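Entry 14. Two folds queued back to back today. First construct below, sequence then structure tokens.
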Amino acid sequence: MMKLLRIELKKILTYKIFWVLTGLYFVFLALGIILGEHIINNWVDSINRHIPLPLPHVTLYFFPDVWQNITFFAGIRYFLIFPAIIIIILITNEFTYKTIRQNVINGMSKVDIQLSKLQIILCFSVIITTIIGIVALILGISNTDSAGMHLMLTKLLFLPAFFLEIFTFLIMAYFCAFLLKHTGLAIGFFTLYVIIIEPVLYFLLKIPGLQPNNVSQYLPVNSVIRIVEYPAISSLQRIMGITLQDHISLLHCGITVGYSALFLGVTFVVMRRRDL
């Protein structure tokens, strides 16, 4: 297994576009996290201009809510697109430059090829999740007073939940790349589906009278982003009497795991039957 991973890492470490796209992903993610609180408070200010009793400004980056809030922003579909495109490029380039065919000629089995790609996706997901966890920890320590530090680990489960989100999302990108093989086509279709097609389907498939348990929530991308669905805005929730997400749903996690297994299974079958 480690031999397969080393082979993949040798390809990636000298691949400039990988590092450029990864850098852009973290830059845009950092901007999203930094501006998140500012955007929400601007929204609060706009509401306060029309109501007699002003709503308080929110603070997103204190324990324990920082785990939920950071993973929420990191799990927005527009941010997830970046690592997905990276995976698509890595996979489709194997077909473009006939690397997969050469690997088979050199003795690698089709199963080994798939396992090597899966290892890269797993490592990439772990690295991103670890960085998100470190950022959340630093922000939490910086914004939480000593009295609240005992809450540090209360919502830590949102971090492995985010790992499941990004891992499944990258598996979807992997599936799309293997099926279409062409870089531009795969990126175009995947981006179109994530940003336009599925959101449109989400609203078209809503069945009146069955909210919130409608079939639209079980669409692939929607299932992924519903794992960490809302940020925790404690001050507004208390005043307005609304209840947003305060725990991880095992149902949504189970659906996401099911999609991962489905996409991996279909990819395995296609790989076995396809002439490389």
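Second construct, same run, same settings:
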Amino acid sequence: MSVIESFLSVVFNSSTSILFAALGILLMHLSGVVNIGAEGMMLIGAFSGVVGSHLTSNVWLGGLFAMAVTGVVGLVYGYCTITYKANQVVVGIAFNILAQGLTTTLYRIVFGMNSSTMKVDAFSKLGAFSTPVYVGLGFVIVMTVFLNKTKPGLKVRGAGEYPQAIDSMGISVNFTRYASVVAGSMIIGFGGAYLSLGQLSFFTENMTDGRGYIALAAVIFGRYTALGTWLAVLVFGAGEALTYRLQALNSGVPSQMILMIPYVLSIVVVAFFGQKGSGPEALGIPFSKDGRQ
């Protein structure tokens, strides 16, 4: 395998977990619900994927189990932000903090204190890439068609842009947002499962390591489109691949500075493109029939 092929392999394999998380965030944001809690959802998905794979001895069933668990988490998130109308940013941060403590505690309870490197089955490879890489690429196409060419997709976008208008047509804004939050959470959960079952084959505490926030930056950089989000994710994947390459070269640059590359890139992207990539008009605004927040 040539240097370029090896680099591209790392880019696609390492960015797939971020891609799924970003597509889940995209779906939720287009419906009008802010999700700062993707980091925590990914972490829960990573843990649940390992548990599911361990119990069933099947990596794909482990991924489905992760999606089911994060779907329930999304339902709770939806209740807090849609029904209870709590501040969506605060709820997301709370979910991140809760997920860190919860997954660490449950992992030690289920697998014991000294099992941080316990191996489980991992996703198989098809050529140079892990199988979910191809699933992720296909999902970008599916999301693009769904959001732009189907009535349910237009309802999702309407709930984020003009909730009062689609409510006047007899479409339930809150139901649309609930469906988007649950579905988006499941997609994010699979991204977390890919992290523990694709890139690795075990779970470690706080293994998402900021990828949920990078996914959020990718949605902004991608101008709230599935294709743009995918291209943005590849940029961040290239940054992560570059860190591996620089570490392998023993360039003399402190490892801490090398590991900062993907996160510095996220900050730069949000700083320069955050304003241009503004989200839907009703993003983060709880819906009320009388128009009051």
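Quick look at the second one. The radius of gyration is 19 Å. The chain has twelve helices and two strands.
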